[in-house]
Structure formats: structure tokens, C-alpha cells
Amino acid sequence: MNPFKYGCIVGGADFCPRPELAKAVREFVESGQNFYIQGERRMGKSSLVCETVSRMKSVRLLYVDLLHIRSVADFCHRVVRAASRLDRKRSFLDTVMSLVRRLRPTLSVDAETGAPVISVDIATASKTESVEDILDMIAQLSKRMRLCVVFDEFQDILNVEDPQTVLALLRSGIQFQGDTPFVFLGSVRNAMSDIFTKSRSPFYKSAMALRVGEIEEGPFVRFLESKFRKGKRTIDRSVIRAIMSCARNTPGDVQELCETVWQSTSSEVPVSSRDIDKALALIFSRESKEYDFALRQLTRIQLRVLIGLARKDVSQPYAGAFLRETGVANVNTVRKTIEKLMELDIAYPHDGVYRFGNPFFREWVRRTYP
Question: What is the dihedral of CA 81, 211, 365, 297, to 10 degrees?
């Protein structure tokens, strides 16, 4: 069985320990401090919080994924659904339903899991003031059990109608729940920053900040080595480091490449650097439609800029050297192209250079347009 997992929240043996960050999370939760975690995509933010809180005695995790929410009703539905997972007993579910009775809840059985779930009436829950009912429910549940509330992909709250009013209602209700820590996770750089650091935002200075970046190399190498060993693969640490470098040390991407390397090899022959190329070819075949779609959105000149950014880490894309290399003479064209690439989430600035959101797309571009 493949020992590597990615693209989901992991815990236990599948989670690479991050002691300093875990310590910070525990201290915030124990003190009832609200905090937000910001980091690039696939850095393991959700796994860090969920694994840390799940190990804390007497603390229950109310985890709500807000990815792609579009309405207040959707927000209410997801929170109530998450609450129904705290306890499957009918008496508890009846309590939850009574706490949100103004939202006309119904109890049903999930077709996939067979577990009981609570839904709310969309028309009733679409009213902005429904947010207050949800926060009242959380406050009442926190009297029955010690809760830690996690709103993942919190930046997507900005997609609902009248987001500033919704944020104001959330802030107003949360500030009176001092014993219950609220954790906000986000992966979109500017949106999360605007919510918590801009003075015009209702959430301005409402939570402490914690940044999650790359995992320290030494512990991560040892963790990956143990996973390969568990999967009956022999691999030198230099090859593991090459895998990490190819995936730009992003935990989720590293695990994906490791998973594909494992799949492409056998227990009979030690894993070599050549196996990384075979694994990349498999990833390219999986993601080829996504790559083609990205390229179709670019003009020929924009493609030249993309290729230039893929060939090496670029810190000064408006300098003469980069313009000559790409054959694009107009600085304004390069500027607009980079803005478009950032808008499409293809590239972004990181530590003074421009990086690709998907390191495997970058590698594909480099190999396709040498």
C-alpha cells in the first residue's frame, strides 16, 4: 500500500511533526486566543491545526470548510453540518436542531456515509442575520463541551453577498465568546491580509497571526525516509532532497511527488534520481488538461514571459536581461502579463522571486519549451 497521502487533511503517522508550530497552536487554544494562520497552498495548515487540537484532552474540534461558499445560507449549512458531526447521538442532534430552530432545520441521513446530518432551510438561512443564530448555537454548544472552532479557507467568506456586513456580524458575535478559540485558515495571500490587517475590515486586529511555511529540511527528510521504508522502498537521502527541491519544499507537493515515485518503482531496486523523471511524466499525464487550459488563456507574448519565469527564479522581470531573454521589449507588457499570471494563480511573488503555484506545471513548461 502506498504510504504517502496528499490532497487531504492528515494526522497520526501521516503527519510530519512540526513541534514549534504545534506548541504555538496549543498555547493559543488553551488560552482561548483567536488566531489566524496564513501560508501558501499545500503547506499543511489544516493538518497542523486539526492534528494538534485532536491531541488536546477535553477540547473538541468544530471544523468548518468554507471553500467556495457563495451565500450566507451556504455558510449556515456548513456550520450546522459540522456541528452535527460532534456527536451522533439523537439527543445531541435534537439539541443542535433546537438551537437553530429559526433556520428550520431537518435531520436526514448522508447518502455516502450513512451518518445523520442536519440541514437548514436555504430560503430562511439566506438572511444575513442568520449568522447570529449560528454564533448563538456555537456559544450554547460551548457550554456543553469545550470547543475550538476552525474556519478553513476563511477568505472565501468574501464571496457572499454583502461580505462586510457578514464579517461585522461574525466579529461582533465572536468577541463575546472569550473562552472559545476561533481559528481562521487561509491560503489566498491578499484576501486574508485584507481581512485581518486592513483598518477598514471588521476583523482588523481581532486575532493573532501565525504563519506556516516550509517544513525544516532535516525532520522532513527523515519523515519521508521512514515513509519510503514503510512502503518497502530503499532510497538515499540525496534523492529525497532532489524530490523536495523539485516540489519546491511545499509539503503537499512533495508528498504528491513521493507518492508517484513510490508508484513508479518497486521494492527490488533502490529508488534513483531517474525515477523522479518517470514520476514527473506520470504527474504530467494526470494534469495535462489543466496545463493546456492554462496556456489557452495566454497570448503568444504572455507565453514567452511564462517560459522566462519557468526557466529560473526571476527577481527582476522588468530588467533588461529578462526582457532580452524573453524577447518582450515592452516593460508594461511584462507587468500586465505578471498581473494576469497572478490573477490566474499561476505565479506569485515569494521571498523576492516569482514562483509557480504548481511546481509541476513549472517543470512541465521548462521541459516543453527548453
Answer: 60
Rounded to 10 degrees, the C-alpha dihedral 106/112/115/120 comes to: -20
User: Between 130-144 and 163-174, two packed helices, what is the crossing angle to 10 degrees?
Assistant: 30
295's grid cell = 496556456
Instruction: Give the pLDDT band of residue 370 (cuts 50, 70, 90).
Output: confident
CA 307 centroid distance within chain: 27
Tens of pLDDT, residues 259-309: 999 999 999 999 999 999 999 999 999 999 999 999 999 999 999 999 999
Q: What is the pTM of this model?
A: 0.90
Residue 314, CB-side half-sphere exposure with 13 Å CA sphere: 24
CB 322 within 8 A of CB 308: yes
62 and 149 Cβ atoms separated by less than 8 Å? yes
CA-nearest of 138, 160, 121 to 62 is 138
Structure confidence at residue 81 as a pLDDT band (50, 70, 90): very high
What does the pLDDT read at residue 41? 85
Q: Which helix (H) or strand (E) holds 65?
A: strand 60-65
Give me the residue label for grid cell 451522533. 88
